[in-house]
Amino acid sequence: MMEKRIIGTAALLLGSATAALAQSSCEGLTPDALGLTGVRFTDVASVPAGEESPVAQCRIRAVTAERTGTDGKDYALNFELALPAEWNGDYVHQFNGGNDGEVKPALGGLAGEAGFGPVTPLARGYAVVSSDAGHDGKAPANADAGLAGGARFGLDFEARQMYGYKAVATLDPIARKMVEGFYGKEIGHSYGVGCSNGGRHAMVAASRMPDAFDGLLIGAPGYRLPAAALQHAVDVQAFTAVTGDLATAFSREDLSLVANGIRKACDALDGLEDGLVMNTQACNASFDLATLQCTAGQNSQCLSPEQIGALKTSFAGTADGGTPYYSAFPWDTGIEGGGWRFWKLESPIPPWGKKPIIAVMGASSLAQVFTTPPTEISGSPDDLEAFLKDFDLEKNAGAINATSEAYPESAMEVMAPPGHENPELAEFRDNGGKMILFHGVSDPVFSANDTSNWYSKLDANNGGKADGFAKYYPVPGMTHCRGGPATDSFDLFGELVDWVKQGDAPEAVLASARADNKEVPEALKGATRPLCPAPSTAQYVSGDSKSAASFECR
Predict the structure, then answer these.
(1) What pLDDT is recorded for position 297?
(2) Residues taking part in catalysis
(3) Mean pLDDT of 508-531
(4) What is the CA radius of gyration of the chain?
(5) Model pLDDT, residue 525
(6) Do 200 and 35 touch, CB atoms closer than 8 A?
């Protein structure tokens, strides 16, 4: 089965789809020429293949939905459309991550990024659109907000809505009209792709725009962004309590101790002790963090009771053993990875005061975007961290579900896919839509457990047959969207295209350990593994320990 998938993907990369040459001239192209109203072109350029673009393209940068917000600031939906000279007839809407606020190059994804393999959708001949989701994260009007400026848009309700769900709904028909007007031909198949907040955009589209996309590739979906932001306060409060300082709560050696403890308990569960823990579900039933706690007279190669307590609180999502504010997290070896530390404990970035992402972007987003009423927060690193330290979870967690006259939809209503608590996706399914989800088991910001629980509900609501239109691939060891001690190079986009076009549902997918991934054990550089759809996991059978052919999904 895996060999068939590789052959199918290879055929795609070689251009099995029929190429169509652009029928319109790029230079001097105007909105009027494409029948557009309410759209302004800011730059139109013929871009040759090279450093800026993997292929020759007509690149259009444009703006729509220009307005003045209730906060007196200017807002607009900026976007970039890439129209390759040799078009394969299909279209990709690229959903971006973080707080958006920036038009990322319209490539469809980064080459080598988890989910895409070595070749981007633009390089494969797709027309691609990318946007800033309706706000400028570096707007001069927010310069005085410092590090909180990128989330200051949350003080305007419509900007929240644009970020939550309106930007995709507004831009998608415009981009399609531009593609079809430029080439003089209807789009064949359309896809939506994204990781992190981009994965959330894709899940929202499946619910709110069930007939818009033939296929959706959904990575590490932060589909409950406001609830995940509450986890930032859980983490900062729990970790700061260890030493009084977030960065020193755990050394790198401490986290490697945890990862090694997980390997000791779990590495053999997949049939092979090789440094990669593939059976993460069994691992979470086998690993006991308490075995790493220092005993009387022991002061090295162990964790203090305070460290044990902090990790238990973080991974449970709550300190009192009750319902998590967001979600519990699975134990996995990626806890020793740089990505985990970058999100949770510290960064190498001086302007951030070397604070982690949750204490910079996370704090400003919780304060200004994900709670009602919003709190206009200072943008200094210390003030942002202090906001999370002082955030009263018991008293204020409900603010993510609150409304007001100025904010008639709660942050959860704006950000989360409708029906996410009990998903069925009947319209998307009945329209023939296909989706593939993937999530790093060691993701430190959006829990793979949350995605797994969502998929389990989807499956139950589809009579145990959700895999007829939706597949979920947990990625052992991988942190947020890529990285960690994992085989994190795989092409699920090609699998999605095969499924949409040929009805060829994916099963085991080839995943490789990148040679430039320093977090992969040296002996496994270049190793391959089958990436298995849940609930199956990769199990060693026999043969070369570095070859995916020696494993089966069971």
Answers:
(1) 85
(2) 196, 443, 480
(3) 89
(4) 23
(5) 84
(6) no
Q: Count CB neighbours of 36 within 10 A.
A: 17
pLDDT at res. 321: 83
Which pLDDT band, with edges at 50, 70 and 90, does 8 fall under? very low
Residues of the chain above pLDDT 70, percent:
96
Q: Which of 334, 330, 315 is nearest to 485 (CA)?
A: 334
> Three-state SS for 63?
strand
Give 102-107's long-range contacts (Cβ < 8 A, gap of 24+).
Answer: 102/132, 102/136, 102/137, 102/138, 103/61, 103/78, 103/79, 103/130, 103/131, 103/132, 104/130, 105/80, 105/130, 106/59, 106/80, 106/81, 106/82, 106/130, 107/54, 107/82
Burial (0-12, 13-18, 19+ Cβ within 10 Å), 241: middle
Model confidence pLDDT, tens digit, residues 83-130: 999 999 999 999 999 999 999 999 998 777 789 988 999 999 999 999
User: In angstroms, rounded to a whole number, what is the distance separating the alpha carbons of residues 544 and 546?
Assistant: 5
CA 315 from centroid of its chain's CA atoms: 19
Rounded Cα distance, 470 and 433, in Å: 9
- Asked whether the whole model's pTM tops 0.90, one would answer yes
Look at residue 418 and give its three-state secondary structure: coil
> Which residues, at least 6 apart from 108, have a Cβ–Cβ distance to it below 8 Å?
92, 94, 116, 120, 121, 122, 124, 126, 128, 193, 493
CA separation for the pair 494, 534 (Å, rounded): 19
